[in-house]
User: Which sequence fits this backbone?
């Protein structure tokens, strides 16, 4: 799960890492927020009306949902077993309220918080990207100040000062976590299988190239 104050550069960061690391899938959330000019239905979000969102809440379709800056956002339930069997990791772009709820349900979820180098940089980025009115920018900054406190209980913080450096850091975290999971898998679940047949499943979550090299 990846969280950040708006303007921290999280969307670009995630996009670049997904281009470079195999076996990652982006969880497309549902939202009642209207699409921005550069956003695609089904790629960035599923854009739905308040009524449809409410029906989904009542139908218990969400793993979690939250209200953020006056709009609702929700993550639908996923077939975790199916993803796991394919060795695919799911990336959730989610606010701190949602991250807390998902962590309660999925204990092995990893939480990463992306921060700009300073509040001053964050303000400059919000102004430069030109998506918000000055009131909205002040509102987002006040929200960010409160939200940053929540980064305390995340596993990792990445300072996004220079995008390529942040990309390398996020990739490193993901690769390290995959190695950790492979270790847990082999020792806690399936050592016998691995010993018998060098593990059809051993190395789940690694790229094909990574698996070949084991
Ligand atoms: P934006 O409108 O700028 O795309 O997103 C606003 C906030 O909503 C961001 O902090 C983003 O991480 C969060 N968000 C996006 N999708 C979800 C979701 O499915 N659940 C929750 N709880 N937050 C989300």
Assistant:
């Amino acid at each position: 799960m990846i969280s950040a104050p708006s303007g921290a550069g999280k969307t670009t960061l995630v996009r670049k890492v997904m281009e470079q690391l195999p076996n990652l899938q982006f969880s497309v959330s549902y939202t009642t927020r209207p699409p921005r000019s550069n956003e695609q239905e089904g790629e960035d979000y599923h854009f739905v009306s308040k009524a449809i969102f409410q029906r989904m809440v009542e139908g218990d379709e969400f793993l979690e949902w939250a209200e953020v800056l006056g709009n609702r956002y929700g993550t639908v339930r996923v077939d975790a077993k199916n993803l796991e069997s394919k060795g695919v990791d799911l990336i959730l772009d989610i606010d701190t309220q949602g991250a807390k709820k998902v962590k309660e349900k999925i204990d092995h979820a990893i939480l990463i918080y992306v921060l700009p180098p300073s509040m001053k940089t964050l303000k400059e980025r919000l102004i430069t990207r030109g998506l918000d009115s000055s009131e909205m920018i002040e509102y987002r900054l006040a929200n960010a100040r409160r939200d940053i406190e929540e980064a305390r209980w995340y596993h990792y913080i990445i300072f996004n000062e220079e995008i390529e450096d942040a990309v390398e850091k996020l990739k490193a975290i993901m690769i390290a976590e995959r190695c950790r999971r492979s270790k847990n898998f082999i020792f806690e679940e399936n050592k016998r299988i691995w010993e018998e047949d060098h593990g059809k499943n051993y190395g789940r979550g690694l790229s094909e190239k990574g698996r070949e090299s084991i």
About this structure: Residues 205-214 have pLDDT under 50 and may be disordered.
